[in-house]
C-alpha cells in the first residue's frame, strides 16, 4: 500500500438545504474535491490560525479595493483577523480615493467581458480610467494629488522616513473609519508597501521632490517586518494574488532568526490566486515550492485556492467569522 | 457623454456581518466588480429564469460528479431547477458508479496540488485511477461493466435507440434516488450526451457489439432537443465548463424555428468556466460572441462567471434556492 | 542524494544568432526551463516517434481551422506525420467551408482583444458569425448546407454508416487538395469524430432526417480505432487542446489488448493546451495523471506544452520537418 | 456596413516548407488568427519600433533568468534592442548568481509538471531551492551574499543612492559580459528596479544596515525614468509578464510632459503574458485598457501575445533580428 493511498477519504457530495449560512455551505464543501475542497480547507486553516495565537501576514495584490473588497479588508484589520499587511501601492491609492469621498464606478454593461462594453479611447476623452469593469474619474486622482501633497508638506524635512512611516502619516490624516490605511493606524496593524514608487503616491513624490526634500528609504522597513516574524509564536500567511506582496512576506521567513530548532518558514499558509504554476512565475508558484526555500514550513498547513479573490475572500471571511462568533458563545 | 458612461453605477463594497446566509452574502457582492459582481449577477439571472417560465438547459462538462457535485445536480433535476441536461459521458459514468454503491476518494495530501502528492505509476500498480485529487478504483469500473452489460442485454435487439433512450434505459435500472440519471427519469428531465461513444459506456458498447447487435443512432436525439427549444416560451442556458455540452445546447438555437419575429437565441445565459477567450476555443468564448451567431439573443440577460464550477455552482444554487423559498412564503 | 537531484542538468541559456532556422532556435531552447524547455522536448519526442515506426494519433480540439492551421494539418496527414485523426465536428465543418471556396476573415482591429473591436449584435445583423477574431459569413454556411445535403442524398439508404464512413463520403466529394478531409481520404488516414452530432453536420443530418432516412451509428467507429491501436508496433499521441478528441484517443488505450507483457498505454505523448490541471478538467489534466489510468505508459516519453496551439504547432512541425529532411540526406 | 467589417482580411493559412528560418515562419503566421496572428503582429510592431527612432522600455517580470533567457536579454541590451529596463529584484539576483559562475539546474524529470517530480521538503534538506522546474543551490546564494556585501562596503557612506545607482555599482563589479547588469553598464542602458527591497538584495541590505549605514532612496529613480520618456522622440514598451515592471513603465506616461499637442502615452506596445483580463489584475489587463488611462496612446500600435514568455520572446527576437540584418544589407 502506498503512502498516498493510506490517506484517501471518501468524496462526500455537497448538499444544499434551505437557508444555509455561509459556513454551513463551506462545511458541505469539505467532502468535495477540486476548488470546492480547497476552499473549505482554507477556512479550516484560517480558523486554526485564529485559535492558535498566530501572527497573520496578509499580502494583497490585484485591484481588490476598486472591486469592492475595501470594507472586508479594513474590517479584517480592525478585528485583527490580520496582524500585518503587505500590499501594492495601487490598493492604497484607491483606498485613499474612497476615504476622500470619491468613488469607483462599475460598467453595468460589462456583465461578462469588460472590454466589450467600452471604447477606451472615448473613455480617455472623458477622463475616465478603466480597471477591467471599474471606472475611476480623473477628478478622483486630482483630489488624491491635493491630499498627498498636503501630507508631504506636513512631514519633517529633517527626518528620513521608512515607507511604513510614510503610510502611517497618510493614514493618520484620513478620517474615514472604513479606510484600510486609517484602520491600520487605529489598530496598530503595520502596512508595508515595498514598491510604493510604483503607484500614484510615487508619482506625486516625484513631483514634490522637484522642489522640496523628501527622503524615504527603500530598505528601512525590512527590519520591522523581520522582527515581527522573529518574535511571533506562530506565523500564518494569507496571500491574495501573488506579486511583490507574496514574495515580500515569504522572503521574511528566509532570514528571520530560527525561533527554535527544526522550525522554519510559515506555520500556516493560504493562497488565493488565478495564476497557475506552469509558466514558472512566482504569482502562480505552489506553496509546496515555497517549502523547498524554507518560506513555508515542511509541516505547515497550507492550501492554494485557485479562484478570483473577489469570490473566495468574502466566502472565507464570512465562514471563519461565523466560527469565531460561535466560539465566543461556547461555555 | 458616451453610452457607456450613462450606465455607470457606484461600486458598493461588500460587508460581512454575523451569521449571513449564502444569499445575503451574494447580495453584498452585487455592488462589487470583477468575479464577485458577476457571481451576484448570475444569481439574479437564474432567479429571473425561475420566475419567468423559462425552459432551462444545463450543460455539464468537467469532472463535476467525481468532485462531489452529484447531489446538487441531481437535486436541481428533481426540483426542476433545470429542464434539460446535456453532459459528457464521463459524468454519467461516475454517476452510475456512485449509484452502484462504489465511491470516489479524495487524496487528502493534495491540498494545493494534486500532482505533488502522488506517483501515478504507483497508482497504476494499485489499480487506482486519478482525476486531479480524486481517485477511483478499478473495482468500481468492473462493477460498472457488469451493470452496463446487464442493461445492454435487456435492450430490444430490433429497435434502433437514440442516445437519450439508451440513457433512460440505464437510469431506470438505477435505484439510487440521488443519481443524476435516476432523477432525470423520475422527473422526466431528458439527458443528452452526444459524445457518449467517448466514455466507458462507449467502450462497453464496443465490447458488447463484438458479439451482439446494438444500434444507437448518432443523430436521433437532435429532433427532441430542437423541439423542446422550439416549444419553449422562454429559454435559458446554464453552461458549466464548455466542451460539447455548451455547443450542443447553443447550436440548437441556430436551427430551432423562430418563435416570433425578431426573437432568436437563448433569452438567458449563465456560463461558469475557467477558460478564457484569448485562445479562440469555444469553451472560453464569451456569451457576446454567441450573440453574433444568434445562439444567445441580442437582448438576452447573460453573464459569464470565470470560476471553478465546484465553487460557483454551490453558491449560486444555495442563493437562488433561498430566494425561491422566500418567494413561496410571500402572500 | 535524492533521485531528483541526480537528474539535474545545468540550465543553458538560449542564444539567438543571425539567420537561425526554426529547428536551430528550438535546439537553443533545449537547455531552457519552463515552456521553452517543454517545447524543445516536444520536438525531440516527435522526432523519435517519426523515426521509430510509431502509429501517431492526433487529437484536434479548438478552432484550429478557422485560425489558419488547416494547411499544416492537411500536410501532416498527407506526409503521414500523423496516421489517425480524432477531431471536433467544427474543425471539419470549417475545413469543408474552405474546400468549397468560402473563406474565414480576420478582424484586423482585434490585435489584442477580439471582443473589444466588435459589436456582436451588429455582426449578427450582417450575418457575420464570430470565432474570437475570426468571422465566417452566413453565406459560407449556406454553401455548406447545399453540399452536405448533396452528400447525404448520394448515400445508400440501406446501409448503416459509421461516422468515419460518413466523413469519408464527404471527403471524397471535396476536390480541394488542401482539405483535411480530402487529404485523409487520399492518404488513407482515418478521421474520427465521435461528437459529430455536435456540429453543423449534425444539424443538417437532423434536417435531412425529417424527410429521408439516414442511419449513422454512434459506436461503430470504436472497433476501427481500437484495432489500429492494437496492431501498432508503437503508439504516439499528439493532443491539441483537450476535449473529446483527447479522451477518445486515450480511452482507446484502456481497452486495446495488451500487445506484450508489461506494456500498456501510449508510448509517446505530446499535449499542447492552454488549460491547466487545477480545476480538475480533463482538458488540463497532466499526462502523468493519464499514467494512473494506463492511458499513457508508465515509461512513456511525454510532455505537455502549455501554449496556444496556433503558436506551438507551427514551430514543432517546422522543426521536426527540418530534422526529417536532414535525416533523408544522411548517407 | 459596420466599421469592423470594413477591416476584415482573409485568413491565410500558414504553410510550413523546408528549412524555414524563424522570420519566414513568423511571416507565415501573419495571415493566421488567435495567438499566431498576434505573435506575427508583435514582430511587425517591434520592427517598426527599431526602424523609427523609438526609445524602447522593456519590463521583465517572472523568473526569466532562471529559465534561460539571460543571454537573450543581455544581448538585447548590448545591441540596443532595448534602451531602458525595468525588472524585478529576482531577475537581477539570478543574473548576478550566473555572473559569479554559479548555475541554475533543470529538473529533467519535470517534463510536464515540475511539481510531480520532486519532494520539496527533501529539496529543502539538500539546500536546493525550486523555481518550478529549476533548482538553485544555497551555495549560490552564499556566493551572492559575499559579493553583494562587498559591493555595499565599497559604497560611499555619505551619499544617498538611488536604486539605479546601486544597480550600476553592482553591475560595474561583474566581469561576465553576458550579465544583464554588466551589459547595461557597458551599453549605458539604465536598469530600474522599484521593488528592490523585495529580493535577496533587499535582504542583504537589511543585514548590512544592522551595522553600517546604507541609504537608498525609494523615489529618486522616478526623475530619470520620466526624463527619458519626456525626451524620447517616440516611445515603445515591451512588457514581459506584468507586475511592478509593467506598471512602473506605464505610469511614467501618465506624468511625463506631453511632447506635442494631441500626443500622449506610448506609441508602441507589445505585451507577452499568460495572465488574462478577467480577474481585473493589472498583469492581465489589456493594452486597450491602458489607453483609457493615457498610458498607451489612442493611436498606438499595440498587441498582446498571450504566451509563456520563454516561448514567445526567443521567437520574436530571432525574427526581428533577421529583419534588422536584412535591412543592413539593403542598398
Helix content of chain A: 40-55%
Beta-strand portion of chain A reads 15-25%
* Structure summary, number of beta strands of chain A: 12
Largest interface: A-B, 86 and 88 residues
Distance between the termini of chain A: 44 Å
What structural class is derived from the secondary structure elements of chain A?
alpha/beta
> What value does the average pLDDT of chain A take?
93
Report on the structure:
Four copies of one chain form a homotetramer. The first copy, chain A, has helices at 3-6, 22-29, 34-51, 65-78, 89-99, 120-125, 138-154, 163-172, 180-187, 200-209, 221-231, 243-255, 287-293, 309-329, and strands at residues 8-10, 54-60, 84-87, 105-107, 128-131, 134-137, 161-162, 191-192, 216-217, 234-240, 266-273, 296-306. Chain A is α/β, with parallel strands linked by helices and 331 residues long. The first copy, chain A, has a domain at 1-53 and 233-331. In chain A, the strands form three sheets. Chain A has a six-stranded parallel sheet, sandwiched between helices. In chain A, strands 4-6-5 form a three-stranded antiparallel sheet. In chain A, strands 7-9 form a two-stranded parallel ribbon. In chain A, helix 4 (65-78) runs parallel beside helix 14 (309-329). Chain A starts with a helix and ends with a helix. The relative contact order of chain A is 0.16. Chains in contact: A-B, A-C, A-D, B-C, B-D, C-D. At the A-B interface, strand 1, helix 2, helix 3, helix 4 and strand 4 of A face strand 1, helix 2, helix 3, helix 4 and strand 4 of B. Strand 4 (105-107) of chain C pairs antiparallel with strand 1 (8-10) of chain D, so a sheet runs across the interface.
